[in-house]
Amino acid sequence: MSLEPTPLLLGLQVLNLMAVLCWITGQAWMWRVQVAGAANRQAIRVATSLAATLALFSGAGLLAL
Questions:
Q1: Terminal-residue alpha carbon distance, the chain
Q2: pTM of the model
Q3: Dihedral angle at the C-alpha atoms of 45, 39, 24, 12, nearest 10 degrees?
Q4: Pick from 45, 25, 23: nearest CA to 34
Q5: Angle in degrees, CA 50, 6, 61, rounded to 5
Q6: What is the CA radius of gyration of the chain?
């Protein structure tokens, strides 16, 4: 087995990192939205949920490799 990372592994790592960062950013923004009382709560909640789902699935893909 080669020790070099394959393009698939590198792609999954990048996807996982981006998804986790988006999820964390969405969580931080959720606090700001609740304090400000903005009407855009639903959009941020949906985006955060999608990022969390993507992070979970890409992380599971990394574990499967």
A1: 13
A2: 0.64
A3: 50
A4: 45
A5: 30
A6: 15
